[in-house]
C-alpha cells in the first residue's frame, strides 16, 4: 500500500499560527508611469514630485475594489499597510477604504475630497480596516527621481486624516537624497526587514500597498529555494494595481505567540498510548 508513496521534500507543513496571509498590491498607474515609459528622464522632473495616480489609475482602483468585495476579501483584511507616498495612499484608501464620506459622522475621512487633484469624493474611514503608513515599504530611493520623494507628514495628515502616521519619525523626507541611488540588494534587505517586522503585528491577514521595485527585489530573495515555475510566479513584475495574495511563514521563531485555534483534546484517565506502542 505504501510502496508508491516516496518521501518528498517538495512540500512543507507549518503550524497555522506561524503563517500570515499578505495581500500584495502595487499602486495604480501614476502620472510618472505614463511619461516615464516614453522618456525615463521624466522621473526627474519636478512636475512628477510625489506623483499622484492618473484618471486611468482611479479606474484601476475602482475595478480592484469591486473584485475584493465580490470575492469576500474585504471582510477578511484586518489591517492595510501603505507606503507614505501619494499614489500608494490613494490606491490603498480607494481599494480598501469605506464608502463616500459624509460630514458629521464622528470619524475623520480616510481621504479628503480632491486629494492630490484627484477629483474624487472624500472616502470614509467607517466599516473598513485600520490604515497604517510605514516608511520601510517605500519605493527604491533612486537619487534624482522626484516621483519617489515624499511630502511632509504634516501635509499628508491634512489629505488622509484617518491614516495612522505614528510610526514615521521624521516630518520631512530624510531618506530621499538627490545624489544617492539605493542598491537593489539594499532594497531587498529593507523589504525583508519589513516582512520580519510584520511578525510584531497580531494581524493575520494584511493588505500591503507598495511599489514595483521593492516588491520585485524582496520577493526575488524569498523565492531562491522555490521551483523555477513558482519562482517565476513570485518574482514576475507587478502590473499597476495588481493584487497578489501570498503566505508569509515564520521559519525562524520570529513570533513566539501561542496558537489561537489549537485545542488540546480530551485527557483520558488511563495512559493514552498510540496503538503501535501498545502492540509492542
TrEMBL record:
<dbReference type="InterPro" id="IPR013078">
    <property type="entry name" value="His_Pase_superF_clade-1"/>
</dbReference>
<dbReference type="InterPro" id="IPR029033">
    <property type="entry name" value="His_PPase_superfam"/>
</dbReference>
<comment type="similarity">
    <text>Belongs to the phosphoglycerate mutase family.</text>
</comment>
<protein>
    <recommendedName>
        <fullName>Phosphoglycerate mutase-like protein 1</fullName>
    </recommendedName>
</protein>
<dbReference type="InterPro" id="IPR050275">
    <property type="entry name" value="PGM_Phosphatase"/>
</dbReference>
<dbReference type="Pfam" id="PF00300">
    <property type="entry name" value="His_Phos_1"/>
</dbReference>
